[in-house]
Amino acid sequence: MFGRLLLAIPFVFSTIVLAGSVQRLDLQLPASADANRDAVKDIFLRSYDAYRKYAFGHDDVRPVSKGYVDSRNGWGASIVDAMSTMHIMGLDDLFAEAVDHVRNTDFSVSKTGGTVSVFETTIRYLGGLLSAYELNGKKEPILLEKAKQVADKMAFAWQYQGRTIRVPFGYLNFATNRATQSTSNIAEAGTLDLEWATLSKYTGNDTYRTLAEGSARAIATNPAPLPGLAAQGIDPASASSVGAHITWSGGSDSYFEYLIKYARLTNTDDHLFADTWQTAVDSSIRYLLRTSAVGGYSYLAERNDNGRIVESSSHLACFHGGNWILGGKLLNNETIVSVGLALTDACWNTYASTETGIGPEGFAFVSKDSLSTLDAISDQQKAFNTKHGYYITSSAYILRPEVLESNFYAWRATGNVTYLDRAAEAIKSFNKFLSVDSSGGFSGIWDVDDLSAGRDDHTESFWFAEVLKYLSTSVRSAPFEECLWEWAGTRKVTFAFRSSLFDSPATRGQPTPFVGKRL
Questions:
Q1: In the chain, is it the N or the C terminus that has fewer CB atoms within a 10 Å radius of its CB?
Q2: Closest Cα partner for 483 from 107, 25, 4, 84?
Q3: Domain 3-501 has what CATH class?
Q4: Could you tell me the pTM of the whole model?
C-alpha cells in the first residue's frame, strides 16, 4: 500500500441491466466432444509439464531449447495465467501448487528491472489472480491479497506532476514508482476496468474502479474521428486523443472489447459503455466493413491517420467476431450477431487455407474497390489471394487465441456443429505442427504456410490462459455456467474474457431493459 493514494472508498454496484441469452438454449454436444475435451486437456498437461521442468517460477518456457524467458516481470506469468484453466479442467494439484507460488511471490518488486506494462500486468496477473480467486470459491484469500499488492503499485501510473490524472501512463518503474511519460494507446489505457472494478468489489475499496473506469470514460467521451470509434493514440497527461488511426486490431482492440463486457459486468443504469460499443459497431458496419472480391468474405478494414481506408487485418483483430456475437445477443440485436458470424468465418478461413491449418499473425484482403492494391504485392501473395480470398502479410503463429475465441462464441450462440468441427481441426493442427517432441511442450512457428520454417521456441502464457481454455470450454458438456453469464445474472456463473479470460460473475439483480442505440 502506498499511503494516501488509495483511500478506502465504499464500493457499490447497481443492478438494472437486462441482457439477452447468449447461448442457444437447446445446445447439444456430439459424441465426439468427450474425446476432444480429453485431447485439449492432454495438450495442456504436456505444455505445462514442459514449463514445470524447464521454467517453473519464470514467465514462459522455451520448449525447444529447454530454457525460459522472463518477459512479464519475472513473477511466473504462465503459472498465474494458467490457474483458471487448471480449475476448469479439475487439475487440483497443479492449482494448489500455483497458489503456493503466488503466496511466495512479492508482486511489488519486478524481477526484471526496468519498466512494467500496466496493461499486460493487469490482464495477466491481476486478471489471473482474481479469476482464480473467484473460480475457487474465494477459498484462498492470498490470491486477493496479491491482486491488491499488484494494483497498489500500478496505481502510481495515474500520477503526473503531483496530481492524479484520468488516463494512466502505459509503463511504470516499480522501483521508483514513476511512470514513463509517453503517449499510450486506447487498448493499454482502456483495458483495465473489468479487473480493477472486480478488485474493488472484493476489497470494498472503490478507488481501484474509479481509476480504471475513469480512463475508459475519458476515451469514450473524447471527440472521435468516426462516431464511437476512438483514435488509437492517447496522451495520458492531457487525456486527449492523438492522431486519427482507427482499427479493431492491436493497440485498440481490447478497448472496444471491454466496452460491452464492462456494461454487463457493472449492470448499472449508466449506458455510456453499452451505447459507445453499439455506436462503434454501427460506425464499423457503415465505414469499415468490406467484402473480399474473392470468396466474398466479410472483414473490417482500418482507417489511417489521413482518413484513408487500409484493408489489412490481423489475428489479434479476429476477436471482433465473437465480441459482436456476444454484444449482439446481449442487446437482442441479430444484425450485429449475423455480421459477427460472418467476421468469424472470414477469420477461420485464414486457418483453413494454410499448410498447417493454423492462421497467420497478419493478413490483408482485396475488395472490388481496392483491386489496384494487387499491383503492390508479390506474385506469391497474388496467387494466394486468388485461391483463398486474402493474402498473408505476417506469417508467424505465436499461440494467439482470437480466432478460436470467436469460434467459441459462434458455437455457443448457434449450436452449429461446424464450429465444433473447426475446434477439432485446430486441436489436430496444434498436435501435429506445434508439439515439440524433445520436451513435450508446444511452440509457436515462424510460418504457418511453410512447414520448413521452424519454431520460435516460445510458449506464451496466453496459450494456457486463453487458447486451451477456449478449446476446452467449447467442448464441455456443462452449459454456460463455467464460461458465460446467464442472461439475468441471478446464478453464480463466470464469463470468459479474451484478455486472460478474466472470469467474473455478473452482478445479481432484477433484470430491466438494456437501453442503447439500435442499428
A1: N
A2: 84
A3: mainly alpha
A4: 0.91
